[in-house]
Amino acid sequence: MTTVAVKPATMAQALTRALRDAMAADPAVHVMGEDVGTLGGVFRVTDGLAKEFGEDRCTDTPLAEAGILGTAVGMAMYGLRPVVEMQFDAFAYPAFEQLISHVARMRNRTRGKMPLPITIRVPYGGGIGGVEHHSDSSEAYYMATPGLHVVTPATVADAYGLLRAAIASDDPVVVLEPKRLYWSKDSWNPEEPAPVEPIGRAVVRRPGRSATLITYGPSVPVCMEAAEAARAEGWDLEVVDLRSLVPFDDETVCASVRRTGRAVVVHESGSFGGPGGEIAARVTERCFHHLEAPVLRVAGFDVPYPPPMLERHHLPGVDRILDAVGRLQWEAES
Amino acid sequence: MTVMEQRGAYRPTPPPAWQPRMDPAPLLPDAEPYRVLGTEAAAKADPELLRTLYAQLVKGRRYNAQATALTKQGRLAVYPSTTGQEACEVAAAMVLQERDWLFPSYRDTLAVVARGVDPVEALTLLRGDWHTGYDPYEHRVAPLCTPLATQLPHAVGLAHAARLKGDDVVALAMVGDGGTSEGDFHEALNFAAVWQAPVVFFVQNNGFAISVPLAKQTAAPSLAHKAVGYGIRGRLVDGNDAAAVHEVLSDAVRHARAGGGPTLVEAITYRVDAHTNADDATRYRGDAEVETWREHDPIRLLERELTGRGLLDEAGIEAARQDAETMAAALREHMNQDPALDPMDLFTHVYAEPTGQLREQRDQLRAELEAEACTGPEGDTHR
Lengths: 334, 383
Ligand SMILES: Cc1ncc(C[n+]2csc(CCOP(=O)(O)OP(=O)(O)O)c2C)c(N)n1
Prior knowledge:
The complex is a heterodimer. By secondary structure, chain A is an alpha/beta fold. Chain A has 2 domains: 9-188, Thiamin diphosphate (ThDP)-binding fold, Pyr/PP domains (Rossmann fold, 3-Layer(aba) Sandwich), CATH 3.40.50.970; 203-327, Rossmann fold, CATH 3.40.50.920. Chain A is 35% helix and 17% strand. Chain A contains 13 helices and 12 strands. Chain A has helices at residues 11-25, 49-53, 65-77, 96-103, 106-109, 139-143, 156-168, 219-231, 250-260, 275-287, 311-314, 318-326, 330-333; strands at residues 29-33, 58-60, 81-85, 119-124, 149-151, 173-178, 203-206, 211-215, 237-241, 244-246, 263-270, 296-300. By secondary structure, chain B is α/β, with parallel strands linked by helices. Chain B has 2 domains: 28-336, Thiamin diphosphate (ThDP)-binding fold, Pyr/PP domains (Rossmann fold, 3-Layer(aba) Sandwich); 344-369, no CATH class. In chain B, 46% of the residues lie in helices and 8% in strands. Chain B has helices spanning 3-9, 41-44, 47-72, 86-94, 109-114, 119-122, 124-127, 136-139, 151-164, 183-195, 226-230, 242-257, 287-295, 298-308, 314-335, 345-348, 356-375; strands at residues 101-103, 171-176, 199-205, 208-209, 212-213, 233-238, 263-268. In chain B, strands 1-2-3-7-6 form a 5-stranded parallel sheet, with helices on both faces. In chain B, strands 4-5 form a two-stranded antiparallel sheet. In chain B, strand 6 (233-238), helix 12 and strand 7 form a beta-alpha-beta unit. Chains A and B meet through helix 3, helix 11 and helix 12 of A and helix 7, helix 16 and helix 17 of B. The complex binds thiamine diphosphate (TPP). Thiamine diphosphate sits between chains B (107, 146-148, 176-179, 206, 208-210, 271, 275) and A (34, 63, 65, 87, 91, 94). Chain A: Keywords: Oxidoreductase. Chain A: Residues 9-184 form the Transketolase-like pyrimidine-binding domain. Chain A: Its cofactor is thiamine diphosphate. Chain A: It comes from Streptomyces hawaiiensis. Chain A: It is an enzyme of class 1 (oxidoreductase).
């Protein structure tokens, strides 16, 4: 057997391939958004699609997010499968009226007669030195809206697998793409067929015995690093990558927490009213008797996303995670 | 009876709503953008004004070049240049009285500076030390607005409030061609028209919204034509003709101040540089097009007019250049100093009074910083 050296793909390239494969497999799949055509998107995720599939299938729209998502609703009503790009997290907000009032609840409103298979791609999160309105973590808004699925990859393979699954889904799926992982690479070989990940399954990225770090998206690599660093302090941390926020994989998460007895939820968005509160509550409800300590949260501060020169103080990093892990020695303290 | 016959038989007296509310003709923009330089109109222009415009354009061009250079040195995170659009930027600031308000988009740093805001403070957003570096009330300049078109309803509200209070204040709101597709653009124009608010909407049509050309943005004859649907005046001007932009905007401001309501002004111009330093413009446009626009450069146009009429000589040109150099040197010097940042500022301005949670988080960060001061910062910025 000959081994060919394959250049590892970036997460952005994996997403491009997912779009291309989905478009090739199903003529109903249409990509649209601002600058997605000629330019290939500001992050180049739609690079080459307009050339390959034509401007009717990969369309530069007028600059209007409510219009982009609103017309996608109509297109989906008529049998297409729109994949829309919101250029940056905070620029999706003009589309929230369409998202919340229509996209999320059309199936429910029509007693199942009018499902909307729309994929909404949102580059999100900080850590790239972006100016104001380019670093929001908006997952809590999406999670709080019934009728939407919300997924967020942390690895290159998952980026491919989750986006394919989102496009294949008959329900609207918000795909939150961690901007700062767009250029990350891992062992995924772009030449090999990649698995389509079913939506709703978390995965244990690193097994451990002393405590579980529950995390997703941009915080996964940070937690992996924290887990390595924690070994020096005698902690053997398990890292669970949620991959899907809605639906939530209680089974994987709770199985892990039952094994370790301790848990910390880690994410970039603020903690008050953020995803961590929901996760901590679920874990507590299901694993109360297994817990040796309260479920802690390590999150961004409850402030509007700071300017780039201050973001390193805002983002949850290894030290802050280790600090929380230290606080899990509840019995010893009280 | 057929449907047609039925229709024919039905002839009610038209209700009032069927009457046209006004004659749209005076609202319509001229087919050709208004020009002053190189035309008869130039003779009537005030030479002093033209010379001031010239000095401002030269300074503005230098500012754009300097700011772009600062991105290459890593001193600015990003800079959306207005090279080629200086006439619009400068005129927008110049036509306003001190009591008036400017509502800039993220691209309009130059207009903000021309309005009198400190150049370093105007660049704070783009440098990344804070979101807005200046006090909006000091020069009556709203924060540079990154989400597109969202500043337009603000301008309408402010102008409306001023009028309710009996103040003689006009708001001038700037937006790009792409921004005119946003819902907020529509809502702002409609509110302003219905309220007859003293607002000037100023669209700099520079050909592209990042990569998307105007033809994919709108099917209207011009962006100025959109005004008619709202019942306000639309005006089309050559955005590279500083005298023309100044005249059209002045007229719109006067009209608003006199209670005539809003005007939508579209300036036809061109973004000579890329969208920002992070953009690759070769993906969506050719050099030939850019070159054509360099020929129609705002500084060139005005210089030709002024020298042709003996209002400017080599010494005058040199003096303007020197002036711009001095400004650039000062900007360079200030931007090369590291801003003194206090991480605790993260919590200072979230609420008038910090909440309990924020106080806790503030203490947490303070403890982290103290620990860091003892051990020294770790290599990883996110640690
Ligand atoms: C609501 C919103 N959507 C998307 C963006 C991202 N974006 C920043 S600038 C830009 C293009 C703007 O074009 P235009 O309005 O023509 O202004 P110009 O940049 O040409 O001055 C886009 C799409 C944004 N800032 N706000």
